[in-house]
Each structure stands twice: as structure tokens, then as C-alpha cells.
């Protein structure tokens, strides 16, 4: 769970109170005030989550690079297999030639 | 020519038994799991943005329905959420994960694919036919071994071990990436869950007003419509917010599946004794290859 649980709880309580205040507001100005209050809390929620994400963002770059490196390793293996197929086919020709030479001599 | 024959040493493994095999099913599971993680990463970035817009529209509709309050039509423009603007590094990581999964699938297909199998089978058949003639000459006495020590398992095992080495190196990266993604999904999930509760509150408020003022049909239709909207919205949030009645958000299962599939592949059983046998056979054939190469160059 997040390290900012207290902040989240406070924001949640504020939003619930703002929504309740809006529902029960008797005047237009009160209703508008509670709506504004709701968005203040909502904006704070956005900022809090964005800040948490910002902290972990820097950790993705080396991991992404490492995965690209692992992909390159696998691509090298794919190339190697292709070369092995070609070499095996070349070796087949050699064995065939030897077979014929030895049969003659 | 010597280089070509040297590679034949890699094919030596007649005595191999129970060598590691490429499990196409497991690789497919991993590929599907990486695609699911990438989809979840893309979705998570969009869900919060879409939900925030939905709430703005609901808010304006609620103001309009209540009357007396300021409202905008169309709903006011708003800046992109700060959450969305920092999310792309996760998507980039998830896309690298999918590319890695695709490369793994291609490598495994290359190992178990028809090309290498056909090439080695042809070589083995020809070597087997050549052996009786070759045996007649002492210089090529060792060729007798060629007919029995050229085997597909050797090449399969050698390549598969290289794949597994690459996977073992990558596994800690995946574990670390999973933990990071899980924490980030949880953070965004808090915001999305919170905003979903706000949306429900707004809907309940409108339902209350309709119940007080509407006809029976209006009340019935409104309720049915709102339930339909709520179910659609809940489904769209499922990757981040648990379904009604508890449970885990979808991202947990997605990440767990991916990590489990990779772990199973990376830790595929290897038999050290089998590997030692393979290496010994390869060395034996290496000597044979040298003889063939020297004599071949003379021919």
C-alpha cells in the first residue's frame, strides 16, 4: 500500500464532505462553493499520485534497456541458428563428396 | 571448410537422453502474458484520463439538471491529468517486454523449427550411408562415429541452453519491473477507485432527484439506464479497481501470470550429466572434424 495513506484518507474525506455539502446546499452560492472545493481535493489527488509515479519513473529506463539487451541476446541466437542451418547444409555437401571420393579410391 | 566441419562438433550428442526441451505452450503463455501486461499498462494510463472526463461531463449534466447553477456546454476543456503525462515510461517498458517475448518465441521456434531439423536429418542420413565406404580407409576410421553422433538433440540443447541463459539474465529485470508496475498500478488504482466513488455519488444524487420528481416510467428508465452505465464503467475499470464485492484488481493477475510463465521457462530443468555427455561427444567429433577438414582440403 502507498506511503501516503494519510494524505489519501484526508483527500477522500474532503471529497465526500464536499459532495455531501453540494447535495444539501440550500443556496446556489453554497452549491458552487462545494463544487469548487471538490475540485480542489480532486486536483490534490491528481498531484499526489503523479508525484508518486514521478519517483518510480526513473527506475524504468534501466529496466527497459536491460530488456532490449535480452532481446538482442535472443536475436543473436536466432541468427546463430540460421548460420548453423547453413553450415550444416555445407557440411552435408562435404560428407557427400567424401563419400564419393572414398568409394572411388 | 575446417570451420564448417568444426560446427559439426555441436551436433554430436548421440547418447543424450532427456535433454531440455522447448515447450512451445509455455512460451506461448509467456507471450500472451506480456501482451496482457502491455495492454494493461496502456489501459491504466487511459482509464484515469477517461474517467476524469466522464466525471466532468456528469458534473455539468448534474448542474444543468439541478438548475440555478453555472454550467458549460460543451463541457469545459481541461488540461491532461498529471498522472497521464508521466505514464509513458511504463508503456515503453511494457512494449520492450512484448518485444522480448516475441524474440523469445522466434528463438524457440528456430530451435524446434523445421529448418534445423531437416538440415541435420539430411546430414545424418548422408553420413550414415557414407560410413561403410569410409570405414574401408584407416584414415577415416573415426567417421564411423559420425553416423551415430550426429543428432538433433545436441543442437537443440545447445541453442536452448543459450536461450535459457538469456532468460535467466532477464528474469531479475522482469521481477523488478513487475514490482514497480504493481506499485504504480496500485497508485493509479487509488485515484481511479476514488473517482469512481465520486461518479457513483453523482449518479445517486441524480437518481434521488428523479425519484422525487419523475413519473414511475421515468424513474424506472433512469434506474435501468444508470445501472447499464455503471456496469459498463465498472468493466472498463476492472484492470485497476476490483469488481463489486471484492476480489483483486485485474492487473495483479496479469502481472502474476507473466512472472510465473517466465520463471517456469527460465528455470526449465537441465541435466548436468547430460550436458557433460554432450560436451564429451562434441570434443570427440571435433577431432574427427579436423581430420575430415585436413583430408578434404587435400582433395
Multimerization status: heterodimer
The percent range for strand residues of chain A is: under 5%
- How far the N terminus sits from the C terminus of chain B, by CA atoms, comes to 12 Å
Instruction: Give the averaged pLDDT of chain B, no decimals.
Output: 75
* Rounded radius of gyration of chain A (Å): 34 Å
Shape of chain B: elongated
Could you state the order of secondary-structure elements of chain B as H and E? HHHHHHHHHH
Q: Tell me roughly what share of residues is in helical segments of chain B.
A: over 70%
pLDDT < 50 runs, ≥5 residues of chain B: 1-22, 270-299
Per DSSP E runs of 2 or more residues, the count of β-strands of chain A stands at 0
- The proportion of strand residues of chain B reads under 5%
Radius of gyration of chain B: 32 Å
What structural class should be given to the helix and strand makeup of chain A? mainly alpha
The helix tally of chain B amounts to 10
Count of helical stretches of chain A:
2
Query: What overall geometry of chain A do the principal axes of the alpha carbons give?
Result: rod-shaped
Describe the protein in words:
The complex is a heterodimer of chains A (105) and B (299). Chain A is mainly alpha-helical. Chain A contains two helices and no strands. Chain A has helices at residues 5-24, 28-104. The mean pLDDT of chain A is 86. With 299 residues, chain B is an all-alpha fold. Chain B has ten helices and no strands. In chain B, helix 2 packs antiparallel against helix 4 (88-112). Chain B starts with a helix and ends with a helix. Residues 1-22 and 270-299 of chain B have low confidence and may be disordered. The chains are: A mainly alpha (105), B mainly alpha (299). Chains A and B meet through helix 1 and helix 2 of A and helix 1, helix 2, helix 3, helix 4 and helix 5 of B.
